[in-house]
Inverse folding.
């Protein structure tokens, strides 16, 4: 505080300081510190902070990686995020450095990379396989331990992530234990039917969702094709369609009913549960369905009971309550004569987004896979044994818990707002006083008094009041923008010297929140976001993330742990330091986003989806192999989504250019260069190109810029013909 007292007291005359008002700068300061001492002290403190030892283990604690990331993600000794593809069974030599994947994918082809542009989704099929096996093992363990006399047979709800390779992987990895699929619409049903043709013949195909005649006909056709299909009734009137169409098509269907339980999940994800839930039948409606099936001679077709408490069930106590209620309904259906065989407990198996192991939040659950399976098996066994009912096959529709961990979204921070706190020698204090109102001058003098008395909170109060008065003067036109900026600088300096926390900086990221993290924008779902490298350095800055879209909602300002900002590192170029092998680029990863985000993402501002790579563990030098790589949608692709025609747009622009430059202007090749430049714009992804990979050199190209000489030469060489230009663009 003495340093602050010096800066404000010696800077401007208080009433009666006639010598200073007259311009006598030889006036002695009230406290024995000079401006240079102040600046040196602040700089030294900052320098000492930067030099503090920091370890990867401290970063793991700071970002809670050991909580939400186990057993698949950790921080390596290099300070980079490490992937453990087989979970706890991963050996040391099988661990994968995530930054090496990003470099392999994003480096130019000329240096051995794949040349894909960020943002990027890294898919890990080994993790997907491990999640399936872990879920199966958890139920098998519970079944053996409790003497349960049937088996577990899960299905994957394809709505979580309908990507072709994700669904095909699940069918392939789940075949040894009869893992099936769940569909909730006609396209999903077609997808599931096709994929299960290569799966286990006993795998269930559960048909949920609202149904019309075509949907039910498709499901009956699937039964004819020897797929183990179950039509789950969501509405009472669907039973009439099933009865009529099955007779017309001569198919004996397997039918299930979805029950509306009284047990209700109170969190955000429990809106589909309870008596007022969107789906399912009440007990009265179930009894009417049983009667209709009995009258039609099809009661033996009723073989499955389905229910869904809600996603992210927080505790096993709530789970057991709901499963126990459903088991009672199941037992009653057996008593009424239905040939019941399967109890489908729906989804709800939660994951720990914030690592807190808390049952009081939508972001976490207080149990693991083993506790979940044990609670389910125990609740069903208890009711069935009491009712002398044969133990049913247990089915679950766990989507989030299966696919969330296997997908990582990687994006880059392109720039950040500069720190606002200036050095004292950058502030022209006498200049500030010119034109200030009497009230503003009074605030300044009060600030000085508070500084001398070492009253930090009072200093901040008068600094803020001074700033607000100057803003009002600026709006009235009585204060210039230079003086307003000087006052801002002074107030920021006061905050810095007092030790007030620096406002969070804004990091501009090469991403669309609406496309890649839509749940954050729509329902406030929070995912763990972490720098994937430089974790052996202390993050000295707190920041929020702002995306590329022209929308105020395009930002992330809520993070796990209830934080409103994220600890981050200074971008290279802003401060010296290690690049962590990233060539000065700063990469962030969003984890646990493999469920729903791709399915829900749109094309806000016409930003398409990210590039995608599929990475498997390998015994090669870097422990991984990229088995599939696909660039993200181009500008042309996203334009087509909105019914535009890129080829016609290209022709229109090319003809306009010819009119503007003149027909004879193309003798030097400039028209061909222009046309090729336009074509490339349609071909490229909508996201920004990193500055470090694009030198923007102009070389006799009539003002059109290309990333490097090689790109420019390619453009010139490809300018032979109009058709070739466009086919080159979309080859």
């Amino acid at each position: 505080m003495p340093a602050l007292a010096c800066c404000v007291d010696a800077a401007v005359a208080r009433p009666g300081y006639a010598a200073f008002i007259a311009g006598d700068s030889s006036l002695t300061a009230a406290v024995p510190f000079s401006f240079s001492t102040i600046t040196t002290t602040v700089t030294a403190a900052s320098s000492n902070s930067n030099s503090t030892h920091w370890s990867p283990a401290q970063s793991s604690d700071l970002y809670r990686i050991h909580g939400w990331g186990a057993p698949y993600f950790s921080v390596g000794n290099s300070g980079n995020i490490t992937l453990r593809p087989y979970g706890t069974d991963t050996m040391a030599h099988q661990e994968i450095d995530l930054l090496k994947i990003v470099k392999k994918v994003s480096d130019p082809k000329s240096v051995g990379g794949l040349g894909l542009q960020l943002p990027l989704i890294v898919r890990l099929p080994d993790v997907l396989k491990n999640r399936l096996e872990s879920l199966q093992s958890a139920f098998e363990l519970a079944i053996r331990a409790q003497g349960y006399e049937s088996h577990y047979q899960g299905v994957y709800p394809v709505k979580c992530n309908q990507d072709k390779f994700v669904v095909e992987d699940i069918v392939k990895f789940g075949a040894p234990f009869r893992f099936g699929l769940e569909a909730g619409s006609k396209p999903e049903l077609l997808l599931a039917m096709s994929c299960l043709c290569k799966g286990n013949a006993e795998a269930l195909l559960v048909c949920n969702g609202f149904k019309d005649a075509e949907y039910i006909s498709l499901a009956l056709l699937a039964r004819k094709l020897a797929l183990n299909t179950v039509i789950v009734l969501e509405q009472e009137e669907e039973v009439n369609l099933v009865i009529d169409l099955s007779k017309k098509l001569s198919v004996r269907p397997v039918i299930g009913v979805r029950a509306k339980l009284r047990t209700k999940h109170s969190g955000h994800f429990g809106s589909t549960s309870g008596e007022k839930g969107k789906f399912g039948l009440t007990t009265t409606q179930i009894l009417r369905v049983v009667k209709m099936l009995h009258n039609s001679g099809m009661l033996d077709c009723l073989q499955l009971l389905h229910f869904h408490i809600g996603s992210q069930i927080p505790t096993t106590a709530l789970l057991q309550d709901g499963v126990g209620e459903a088991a009672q309904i199941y037992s009653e259906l057996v008593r009424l004569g239905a040939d019941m065989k399967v109890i489908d407990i729906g989804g709800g198996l939660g994951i720990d987004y914030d690592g807190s192991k808390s049952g009081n939040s939508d972001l976490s659950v207080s149990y693991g896979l083993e506790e979940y399976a044990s609670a389910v098996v125990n609740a069903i066994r208890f009711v069935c044994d009491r009712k002398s009912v044969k133990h049913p096959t247990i089915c679950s529709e766990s989507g989030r818990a299966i696919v969330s961990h296997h997908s990582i979204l990687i994006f880059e921070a392109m720039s950040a707002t500069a720190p606002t706190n200036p050095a004292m020698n950058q502030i022209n204090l006498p200049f500030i006083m010119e034109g200030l109102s009497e009230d503003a001058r009074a605030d300044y003098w009060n600030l000085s008094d508070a500084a001398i008395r070492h009253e930090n909170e009072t200093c901040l109060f008068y600094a803020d009041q001074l700033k607000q008065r100057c803003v009002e003067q600026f709006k009235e036109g009585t204060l210039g923008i230079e003086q307003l900026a000087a006052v801002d600088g002074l107030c920021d300096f006061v905050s810095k010297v007092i030790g007030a926390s620096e406002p969070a900086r804004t990091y501009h990221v090469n991403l669309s929140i609406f496309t890649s993290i839509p749940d954050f924008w729509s329902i406030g779902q929070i995912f763990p976001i972490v720098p994937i490298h430089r974790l052996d350095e202390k993050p000295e800055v707190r920041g929020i993330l702002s995306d590329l879209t022209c929308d105020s909602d395009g930002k992330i300002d809520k993070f796990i742990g209830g934080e409103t900002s994220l600890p981050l590192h200074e971008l290279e170029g802003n401060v010296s330091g290690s690049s962590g092998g990233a060539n000065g680029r700063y990469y962030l990863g969003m984890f646990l986003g493999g469920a729903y985000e791709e399915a829900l993402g749109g094309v806000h501002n016409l930003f398409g989806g990210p590039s995608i790579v599929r990475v498997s563990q390998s015994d090669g030098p870097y422990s991984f192999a990229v088995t599939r790589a696909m660039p993200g949608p181009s500008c042309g692709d996203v334009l087509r989504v909105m019914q535009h025609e890129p080829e016609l747009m290209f022709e229109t622009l090319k003809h306009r250019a010819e009119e503007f430059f003149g027909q004879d202007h193309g003798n030097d090749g400039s028209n061909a260069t222009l046309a090729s430049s336009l074509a490339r714009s349609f071909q490229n992804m909508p996201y920004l190109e990193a500055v470090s990979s694009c030198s923007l050199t102009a070389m006799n190209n009539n003002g059109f810029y290309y990333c490097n000489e090689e790109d420019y030469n390619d453009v010139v060489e490809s300018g032979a013909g109009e058709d070739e230009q466009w086919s080159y663009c979309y080859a």
In short: The first helix runs from residue 2 to 9. The CA atoms of residues 235 and 280 lie 6 Å apart.
